[in-house]
Amino acid sequence: MTRWMSLGAAGMCVLALLGGTSCSRRQHQQAASPALPPPHPGVAEAADGPTRGPAVAGAFYPDDPRALREQVNRFLAGLPAPKERLPLVALLVPHAGYMYSGQVAAYAYNYLKGTTVDTVVLVGPSHHGYCRGAALSGAARWRTPLGEVPVDTTLVAALLHANSRFNVDDSVHSQEHSLEVQLPFLQIILSDFKICPLVMTDFSGENCRSIGHTLAEQLKGKRAVLIASSDLAHYPAQVDARKVDKAILQAVETLDPEKVLAADRKLMSQGTPQLVCTMCGLGPVVAVMVAAKQLGADRAVQLDTANSGDVDPATRGRCVGYAAVAFVRSKPLSDKAAERPAPPATSLTASATSAEAEEVNAEQQKQLLILARDTLRKFLDDQEVKPAELPATGILREPRAVFVTLTEGGQLRGCIGSTVAELPLLHAVQSSAIKAAVQDPRFRPVRKSELKDITIEISVLSPMRLVKNADEITVGKHGVMVKQGQRSGLFLPQVAPEQGWDKETMLNELCEHKAGLPRDAWKTGADLYVFTAQHFNETELGLRPTKE
Questions:
Q1: For residue range 144-200, what is the model confidence (pLDDT) as tens digits?
Q2: Which residues have a Cβ under 8 Å from the Cβ of 191 and sit 6 or more positions away?
Q3: What is the rounded CA–CA span in Å between residue 357 and residue 462?
Q4: 357 CA to centre of own chain
Q5: What CA–CA distance (Å, rounded) separates 259 from 205?
Q6: Which end of the chain is more exposed for a tag (fewer CB within 10 A), N or C?
Q7: Residue ranges per structural domain of the chain
Q8: Is 414's pLDDT higher than 90?
Q9: Nearest of 265, 333, 248 to residue 8 by alpha carbon
Q10: Helix 205-219 × helix 257-268 angle, to 10°
Q11: Long-range contact list for 509-515, CB < 8 A, 24+ apart?
Q12: CB of 204 within 8 A of CB of 177?
């Protein structure tokens, strides 16, 4: 069967590892994540707080201290000094296995040499679990084979106090590699420094801008450097990877976060074969750019680029790109500029807000349902599925979180979607439709012969909102997600009314049967998120076909 030509923006790189999020009328579970090498102990208690141990040593980089030190020094050896070493505010650094991206990363850390730094703020994507806002680490230190690095717990506390989008969630840090692989380079380049690790899965302009501005406010006047951890294009052929990487880096060099987001949307709409994302850390890069500009960065210097095909010819048909970029100050930062408060909302926030308020009209609903069926027909018929052409403006091109539900004879046949708005709505529907048909782990894949008997329903979700307690939940209006540690479950808004449940029954069922938690976990510390959803199906809109 022809593989789905990926439609995703940056978040799809994360979701590809997570699997889709499946939902049902009664049962919910996360699709299984691919197995990773057995991790070292993730978080261990120490006298003055927990230690986050290495999770990917021996896989992404050597676990022997001597071999690790030799490899990093080998990457750094012989690199030319930068032509002009301007005051450094932030870096963009890749995070693949050292054999693939270590040499590119070395160019970034070579620029950091000689800089006096008290705190390094590490911002990366989460590849292993959903987190709201920005998830900080609750550990007191992080350990690698080269030793321990203390966490700047004072900065962590300040961020938590300054912005409710920041939270502590060690479950998404325990096996995450995007930040861990930066530490050995830092341990060799710097001395007497602390780190502030945080990961993101919400790459919306609103979230990135809020996180970026708060970071800048809390770092003002401090000797700190920001590091955005991200690889570039995922999985196109080498010739296409180079084109995509060049285009997205041109946007990064503008230091304009909106242009980076716009470039990502444009590149993802062009139908490049096998392209899953332009930057797996798109959100972290945008957030760091926002912070860097507020801290005085006025120039982006591209230091090095490469892709996996340059290192391993076997990957030339399915490449991942890498880049090292320094965000620097080419002009003195005046006292007034240093004290300037965060600027007022720009179109980056305004566009996200307006998109969240806009609803899908009746004609657009029909268009989406027709697109979902046509996508499934082509996919199940072994035809190439191309990303739908995006309109110039409007909700259909805006990133939206979407679930697609398939029913057959009134019974659930598959339901998968995403809780994070990353893909343009048209593309999110195509992607979720295919996943609901063939990737829902509770059902065998849909066969071509079944399609004539299947009814399609689409749910377009609003952004998730953390609530203080169940009193803020309205049955029938709100969908609900519960999360505790690495377990989570979700009900769409229509589930409770369809089952005749009151609020307590709904939450009990959600915890026990969807998240695998105790029935009363929603009363005893689990996080509750609410959202609303527009849901529409082929039967309601008169599109239910009788023959395929």
A1: 999 999 999 999 999 999 988 999 999 999 999 999 999 999 999 998 999 999 999
A2: none
A3: 8
A4: 22
A5: 11
A6: N
A7: 38-239+276-348
A8: yes
A9: 265
A10: 150
A11: 509/26, 510/28, 510/480, 510/482, 511/482, 513/26, 513/27, 513/28, 513/489, 514/27, 514/28, 514/29, 514/482, 514/489, 514/490, 515/28, 515/482, 515/483, 515/484, 515/487, 515/488, 515/489
A12: no
* DSSP-assigned letters across all residues of 470-524: GGG--TTT-EEEEEETTEEEEE-TTHHHHHT--HHHHHHHIIIIIS-S-TTGGGT
Question: Mean pLDDT of all residues in the chain?
Answer: 85
At 407, the amino acid letter reads T
The model scores a pTM over 0.70:
no
**Residue 414 in 3-state DSSP?**
strand
What's the CATH superfamily of 38-239+276-348? LigB-like (3.40.830.10)
Residue 422 pLDDT grade (very low, low, confident, very high; cuts 50, 70, 90): low
Side chain identity at residue 428, one-letter code:
A
Residue 427 contacts residue 372 (beta carbons within 8 Å): no
Query: Which residue type, as a one-letter code, is found at position 287?
Result: A
The Cα 236–Cα 357 span in angstroms is 35
Q: Is the C-alpha dihedral spanning 259, 163, 397, 426 positive or negative?
A: positive
Cα-to-chain-centroid distance, residue 258: 17
- Residue 78's φ and ψ, nearest 5 degrees, are 80, 0
Q: Which DSSP category does 547 fall into?
A: -
From CA 496, how far away is CA 498, in angstroms rounded? Answer: 5
Specify the residue for token string 């930057």: 279
In 298-383, which residue ranges form alpha helices assigned H by DSSP? 308-311, 335-339, 347-357, 362-380
Taking the alpha carbons of 305, 310, 312, 313 in that order, is the dihedral positive or negative? positive
3-state helix, strand, coil in the chain (%, to 5): 35, 20, 40
Give first-to-last CA distance, the chain, whole Å: 19
Per the model's pLDDT, the better-predicted residue between 135 and 85 turns out to be 135
What DSSP element (H or E) covers 63? none
Whole-number Cα distances in Å, 190 to 110, 149, 187: 11, 11, 6
CA pair distance 358, 348, nearest whole angstrom: 16
Helix (H/G/I), strand (E/B), else coil: 175: coil
3-class secondary structure, 447 = coil
Smallest CA-to-CA distance from 10 within 240, 276, 262 is with 276
Q: Apex CA 170: angle with CA 16 and CA 35, to 5°? A: 35
Closest CA to 125 of 295, 284, 18, 262: 284
Strand stretches in 63-152, DSSP E = 88-93, 119-125, 134-136, 141-144, 147-150
